[in-house]
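Narrative of accomplishments. A recurring question from our advisory board has been how the design workflow behaves on a single, concrete structure rather than in aggregate. To address it, we present the structure tokens for one chain from the evaluation set, followed by the sequence designed for it. No filtering or post-editing was applied between the two.
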């Protein structure tokens, strides 16, 4: 059983997680969230098996060797993220389509791998300055980590044109409604 994938990618702080949560709340019968595996530490309030599968770097590398990942990236030095093959098959087995909230390179990798069965959406923030303000506003990162995220975001913004759709997020409510239309149109295609 194979289905479709809806991929939301963007630099950290662009709003992709908020948009994906909105869609999951509106269409729980149609889509299910692909939980990524990560070697990073859980942030306060995050739950293993719900937000991420938090695994050790050793376990992650072992799973890479066993080809258990559809895609994976070393997103920040020493910190890996990836999509387990078993996670995608679990969702398809429920008769739902897979929705991703994933970094830019991972999103492009999935699009290349699944082609027409995947819709790759790039969430475009209003500007790099707004993005930096959103990241600072979270209060979850050190100044050094913030700088690393902003430098990475600059590079990621250059990839936008490689996605099927660029979704502007100047107004979150409008971005959510636009994302919902994109999702439903894609799911209704045969």
């Amino acid at each position: 059983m194979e289905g479709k994938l809806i991929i939301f990618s963007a630099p950290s702080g662009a709003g992709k997680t908020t948009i994906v949560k909105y869609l999951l709340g509106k269409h729980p019968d149609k889509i299910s969230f692909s939980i990524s595996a990560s070697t990073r530490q859980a942030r306060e309030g995050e739950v293993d098996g719900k937000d991420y599968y938090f695994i050790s770097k050793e376990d992650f590398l072992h799973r890479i060797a066993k080809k258990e990942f559809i895609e994976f990236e070393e997103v920040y030095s020493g910190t890996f993220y990836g999509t387990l093959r078993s996670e995608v098959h679990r969702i398809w087995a429920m008769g739902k389509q897979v929705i991703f909230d994933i970094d830019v390179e991972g999103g492009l990798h999935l699009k290349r791998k699944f082609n027409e069965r995947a819709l790759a959406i790039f969430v475009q923030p209003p500007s790099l300055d707004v993005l930096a303000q959103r990241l600072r506003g979270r209060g979850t990162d050190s100044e050094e980590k913030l700088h690393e995220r902003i430098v990475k975001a600059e590079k990621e913004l250059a990839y936008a044109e490689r996605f099927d759709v660029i979704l502007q997020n100047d107004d979150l409510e409008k971005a959510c409604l636009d994302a919902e239309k994109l999702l439903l149109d894609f799911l209704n295609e045969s």
